[in-house]
Amino acid sequence: MEGHITKGQIQNYYKNNMDNKEKYNMLDHVSQCDGCSLKLWEELEKNGCEMPPFLKSEIMEKIKKKEEISKFQLLFYSLKVGAAIAGAIILTFAGSNMESFTFSSIDKINGTFFQVNDSFRNWNSQILERTRLSVYE
Prior knowledge:
elongated, 5 helices, 2 domains, mainly alpha
């Protein structure tokens, strides 16, 4: 929409004599321009114009969508809080046996690591020995 809205455009809007593109452009401009927003409101107050019926349904739809979003946000928040509580409970009960579990697990891991490390050393030594033998032959 070019420029500001006119009184004729406001009257056409309230009489529903505009196509959807014109309505959209006008409302888009009004949402961004304080002067036109005030002009639209003053015209409504002066003439005692009734709100267009389609505007009421649009407002009700937006309210319903907002309620649905709020319900979804509440559900998501509840799930996050529930997961945090469950995690805290698990950590609380797991902490009592953690000392014995940790040391035995570390011993097993270290033992396995040393076995693997020894195997690699032996394998590496064998490769080096074979390489030396083949070079000197």
